[in-house]
Amino acid sequence: MAMKKYEKNGTVSYCLGTTLVFELLNRKPEAATKIYISPKQNRDETYTKLVTLAKSHHLPVIENNEKIFKELSDKDNVMAIGEFNKFSDTLIKDNPHLVLVNPSNMGNLGTIIRCMAGFGVLDLAIIRPAADIFDPKVVRSSMGAIFSIRFHYFDTFGDYQKEYGNHHMYPFMLQAKFALQEAKIEKPYSIVLGNEATGLDRSFLDVGTPLIIPHSKLIDSLNLDNAAAIALYEFTK
Amino acid sequence: MAMKKYEKNGTVSYCLGTTLVFELLNRKPEAATKIYISPKQNRDETYTKLVTLAKSHHLPVIENNEKIFKELSDKDNVMAIGEFNKFSDTLIKDNPHLVLVNPSNMGNLGTIIRCMAGFGVLDLAIIRPAADIFDPKVVRSSMGAIFSIRFHYFDTFGDYQKEYGNHHMYPFMLQAKFALQEAKIEKPYSIVLGNEATGLDRSFLDVGTPLIIPHSKLIDSLNLDNAAAIALYEFTK
Fold first, then answer.
1. Axis-axis angle for helices A18-27, A45-56 (nearest 10)
2. Structure confidence at residue B3 as a pLDDT band (50, 70, 90)
3. Most buried in the list A202, B92, B173, B194, measured by CB within 10 Å?
């Protein structure tokens, strides 16, 4: 993806592709600002549905801007783009949370958001420095699930803890004593996962109940999005 | 990654980066044919360890071929490349198997292999058409775990079934009646997963015990490597 037009410090972002535009309009219409439809898009049933839905939300539909498709995507098959205002939410206090400390890979972040939506854990805390959740790559790899969850960035884990002191914290780390499958899960909980390369630092051994997903010595660690998937599955099943 | 030099129909492939070269030499030295070390690599402890290990396996160590680094990688930080003969294995009959039917995404395939190694499921059947397991992208995303597992390609699922009729088959599909967490797992088992976009076709409803990983209506399906991670975790815990 080219993404020349997307600006990390700007106020808007974009979702690319018809499926994602429908997700935006159905899940988060209040954030949407504009819909672009490619001049190459056939005037078929999908087209009519998209235009009708956009108009029902009083959104401008722009059909003659071929340039923006080249600026935002290097794929030829993107037929619709949704522009939306960046948003942020307050996490719900009594809900389960996922906390990502310094996630750096945009693909992983999107996949994890999709998985959260799948398991009904809808509140995400992200501790900086971290990947930009509004980057169109994250939006795309979330398959639009970003429009179904709440998230909030915090400068430090301490800032998050201060606000959600009622939560039982479960940091996932290789140095933990207890295995995930033996964990007694108390609600409301926070599943806490570290950076792809470095994990959580040892200070998290003093936070809540550290857990490990046991694995063989053939690998150093599980991929972050796989660890998140397994944790979300086990905590919600 | 550039990968101009890698040929799908050739007899050799490459692993890029010092960590992967160590994995090759430690786990699968019999497949290794040659080690390249970048002229930019410092003559430090890692260098000495790598050269000593390669020589202990009687492998040529080539230190003046800067070109191959440009041909195989677009990253500047690759300091070592391992060349190895493509290999194939017979799966072990009484072991648990993972069966991937038409996997198409190379990153997913590598991540799944890493996860298999993590959970000690070391026998992988791949049903064609499928991604090329020897593509350096797969090798890299497996973090070298490809050298720790056995795998075999089959032209059809029927061919696999004929050979491993003793296995209890567990196809994962959205149309299944039983949830993963309720499954009675009989050994030896095969976890069967479909293509990223299309899943398994309905004919698999008649194969063994179809299972579903229940998820909310907010998403269409879980990402393939997340589904594989959850299945491997649950079957082996």
1. 30
2. low
3. B194
User: Which one-letter DSSP state was computed for residue B60?
Assistant: -
Spell out which residues of chain A touch residue B229, defining contact as CB-CB under 8 Å.
Answer: 222-223, 226-227, 229-230
Give me the count of residues in chain A.
Answer: 237
Say if residue A2's pLDDT is above 50: no
R_g of chain A computed on alpha carbons: 19
Across B106-213, the runs of DSSP E, i.e. the strands, are 123-127, 150-154, 168-171, 178-179, 189-193, 211-212
Q: What residues contact residue B115 under an 8 Å CB cut-off, 6+ apart?
A: A222, A223, A226, B225, B228, B229, B232
* Percent of chain B residues topping a pLDDT of 70: 98
CA nearest neighbour of B227 among B171, B155, B185 = B171
* DSSP code, position B187: S
Q: What is the mean pLDDT of residues A79-102?
A: 97
> What ipTM was estimated for this complex?
0.95
Burial A128-164 (b: 16+ CB within 10 A, else e): eebbbbbbbbbbbbbbbbbbbbbbbebeebeebbeeb
| Interface touch B226/A223, C-beta < 8 Å | no
By C-alpha distance, the chain A residue nearest B119 is A215
- Residues of A engaging B, defined by a Cβ cutoff of 8 Å: 107, 111, 114-115, 117-120, 143, 145, 148, 181, 213, 215-216, 218-220, 222-223, 225-227, 229-230, 233-234, 237
User: How crowded is the C-beta side of A70, counted as CA atoms within 13 Å?
Assistant: 5
SS3 A144: coil
Strands (E), B155-215: 168-171, 178-179, 189-193, 211-212
Rounded CA-CA distance B92/A152 in Å is 48
| Average per-residue pLDDT for chain A | 96
pLDDT at A3 over 60: no
Rounded distance, CA A174 to CA A2, Å?
A: 37
